[in-house]
């Protein structure tokens, strides 16, 4: 009985000891988990940031701007006389010379007025001749008792009046004669017919063009001189400094992929558009083959001088707040300092920084809105394809060659002797 009691007491003691050990182990694990949780909470409370450094600016800037191509001269041609289109002789796309007849207008009313003007001139000339004869006869009787001096003067004045009537009738006749010349629509300069709005039988109104069914007036023809083309580009105010007589540009158009055309400076408006803050700049490009057409779209590529001494940053690193433009700089103790900067020209996704930072400063990329001056941060590596190269750097040529050699079958590998001979 005593042996069993001793054995039971021993078992009880072992059970108690095991329970104490398990309880102690549990308390130890719980404390360890608590410490880990506290440490992770403390670490997670520190914001993680990615830092970059400012880069030197480019030696030259590439600037691509939309451009509009216009003809060197473009003339819409309207009728100067009213009538019906008798015939047209040049269609769209026709190359014309100065004075080539484009169309003829039939004007019976104008023809009648011209004939009447010539008849009125003949009448005025006849009356002037009669007045001259009468004046001479009365002049011959001057100083006699047959006529008075007043009658002599009246006949002389009447002759002068008839002379003036002749001049008026002649000018009227010449006016209709000039209008008769407008019955033929001619090309004002060498060029290409880009539009023909007239057809045989159409009624045209003097000074207005073809009158449609709804009374709308349009030009009869449009002629464009395309030996050279005018290029109009709206240059942003930030890049206005590149505009000078030495300015050149390279044009590309959608219809000729892979080809470029050289353009040179002609003029600038020397004033900015208040709505777009751009200045209209005119270039020209030679077009001897007529490949460029008026009113087409192009892209003008400019190369402007840059300054490598001016640092650049991505726009995502800038902070826009009430204090002005700032960047978040991380000091050696991993604390943040908001530094005011002065920005220059916007270069697409990057911007020039004129003052406020150094080349060696660690700048937070895409800082959060809640970041404050003096906050402690934890720096983490950059993201591939975002603020670091998306592909690993290429291996050196010697390493690549060694890898290629190791990848060859042993029978195909060059021997040491062969390598020595080479």
TrEMBL record:
Keywords: Coiled coil. GO terms for molecular function: efflux transmembrane transporter activity. Residues 113-170 form the Multidrug resistance protein MdtA-like alpha-helical hairpin domain. It holds the Pfam family HH_MFP_RND. Residues 233-304 form the CusB-like beta-barrel domain. Residues 381-422 are annotated as: Disordered. One of its GO terms (cellular component) is efflux pump complex. Residues 147-179 form a coiled coil. InterPro entries: Beta-barrel_RND_2, MdtA-like_BSH, MdtA-like_HH, RND_pump_MFP. Residues 76-208 form the Multidrug resistance protein MdtA-like barrel-sandwich hybrid domain. Residues 403-422 have a biased composition (Basic and acidic residues). NCBIfam families: RND_mfp. Belongs to the membrane fusion protein (MFP) (TC 8.A.1) family. This is RND transporter MFP subunit.
């Amino acid at each position: 009985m005593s042996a069993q009691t001793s054995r039971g007491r021993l078992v009880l003691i072992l059970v108690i000891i095991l329970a104490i050990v398990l309880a102690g182990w549990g308390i130890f694990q719980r404390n360890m988990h608590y410490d880990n949780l506290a440490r992770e909470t403390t670490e997670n409370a520190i914001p993680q940031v990615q830092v970059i450094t400012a880069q030197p600016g480019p030696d030259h800037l590439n600037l691509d701007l939309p451009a509009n191509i216009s003809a060197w001269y473009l003339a819409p041609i309207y009728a100067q006389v009213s009538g019906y289109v008798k015939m047209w002789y040049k269609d769209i796309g026709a190359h014309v010379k100065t004075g080539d007849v484009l169309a003829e207008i039939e004007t019976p009313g104008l023809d009648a007025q011209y004939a009447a003007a010539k008849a009125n001139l003949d009448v005025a000339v006849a009356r002037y001749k009669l007045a001259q004869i009468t004046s001479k006869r009365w002049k011959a009787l001057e100083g006699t008792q047959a006529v008075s001096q007043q009658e002599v003067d009246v006949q002389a004045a009447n002759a002068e009046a008839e002379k003036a009537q002749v001049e008026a009738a002649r000018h009227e006749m010449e006016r209709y004669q000039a209008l008769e010349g407008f019955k033929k629509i001619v090309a004002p300069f060498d060029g290409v017919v880009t539009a023909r709005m007239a057809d045989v039988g159409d009624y045209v109104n003097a000074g207005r063009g073809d009158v449609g069914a709804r009374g709308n007036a349009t030009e009869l023809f449009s002629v464009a001189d395309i030996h050279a083309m005018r290029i109009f580009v709206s240059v942003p105010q930030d890049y206005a400094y590149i505009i000078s007589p030495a300015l050149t540009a390279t044009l590309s158009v959608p219809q000729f992929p892979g080809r470029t055309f050289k353009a040179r400076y002609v003029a600038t408006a020397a004033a900015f558009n208040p709505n777009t803050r751009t200045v209209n700049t005119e270039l020209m490009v030679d077009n001897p083959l007529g490949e460029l057409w008026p009113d087409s779209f192009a892209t003008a590529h400019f190369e402007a001088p840059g300054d490598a001494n001016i640092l650049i940053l991505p726009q995502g690193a800038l902070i826009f707040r009430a204090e002005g433009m700032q960047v978040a700089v991380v000091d050696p103790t991993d604390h943040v300092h908001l530094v005011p900067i002065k920005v220059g020209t916007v270069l697409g996704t990057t911007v020039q920084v004129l003052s406020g930072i150094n080349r060696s400063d660690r700048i937070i990329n895409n800082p959060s809105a809640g970041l404050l001056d003096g906050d402690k941060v934890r720096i983490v590596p950059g993201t591939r394809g975002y603020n670091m190269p998306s592909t690993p750097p290429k291996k050196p040529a010697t390493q690549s060659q060694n890898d290629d050699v190791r990848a060859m079958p042993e029978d195909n590998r060059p021997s040491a002797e062969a390598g020595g001979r080479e």
